[in-house]
Each structure stands twice: as structure tokens, then as C-alpha cells.
Amino acid sequence: MALIRDLSTDEKMAPAVGVLFSAVNENIGRLKSIVSGSSQEMLDDKGEHGNKNSIAQLIYHLINVDIRWVYRIRQEELPSEVEEAFSPMTDENGHLPEVKGVPLSVLLQQYDEVLEVLKKTAEQLTEEDLLKTVPYEGGFATIRWGIWHMSDHNRYHQAHIQALIKEFRKRKG
């Protein structure tokens, strides 16, 4: 029998909310699979010329963006302790902040914590809530689009991470 792929929904969530959450959850699981077994050297590598974002930076960026989306969806200000824990989105030059020496297990634990906060938030959302708008980049986005964007953004950076892994393995043999 052929394997059937689907987005599983959580019975505690409204149907459309559950599908959107499932997409985020599945993509985080896929990211974990991609980086599973990565050495610290690979996580911190910034490419042959040292001018690329590292895998660790990209994972941290995803965590940082997603936690901000969770609070945006909740229509709450980002708590100061969360703001401090996840530092600014970019450094003074507009680049992703440096992340070096942070073990993969720590990064993935942080991502799991963000996913758990999203799950608890999603369990409270109704189908109608998905149509509410929240501020985003000088305009507005629906909550539905925001959750979809979390999933899409993760997949986007998975492509970068896979390219970094491939380049690292080619250089390091």
C-alpha cells in the first residue's frame, strides 16, 4: 500500500486552524530531519568565503520570526523577557545576528517551545479569528496568512540550509 501524505489536524483546533498549524508543525519536523546529526562545525559554517548566514543563524532567525508571529496572532505585545531572549531580528548592519557555538539541541528545544506556544494559541482560535487582521510590515495581514507565512518561511530557509549542508559536505568531504 502506498504511503498517504496529509496534514493531520488537532481535534482541539478549528478545522482550518488545525490544517494551518499542521503545516507549520510538519515543516518544523522536516527542518529537524534535515539538520539531524549536524556537527557544531557544520552549524556554525558560513560558507567557503565566510560570507553566508550559517545554519545556526537561519534556525535562530526562524525561531525569532515565529515567536514574534505568535504574539502578533495573539494580538499581544512581545513580553520583554521574550524580546531579551531572542534579541533583535538583525544586527546594526541589517544582517542576521551572529549565532556561534549554540548546540543544535538548544536551538531545536527553543523551536519546540515556540511551537508549543503556537499550538496553545491555535487551540484558542476560531475559524472567524483567521480573518482578523494584525499589523505586518507597515500594513496588515490576516491571522490565516500569518500562520501560513510561518510555514512558508520555514520551507524557504530549508532550501538555504540544504544548500549550506551540501556545500559544507563537498568542501569537508
From TrEMBL:
SUPFAM superfamilies: DinB/YfiT-like putative metalloenzymes. InterPro entries: DinB-like, DinB/YfiT-like. Residues 33-161 form the DinB-like domain. This is DinB-like domain-containing protein. It comes from Bacillus sonorensis L12.
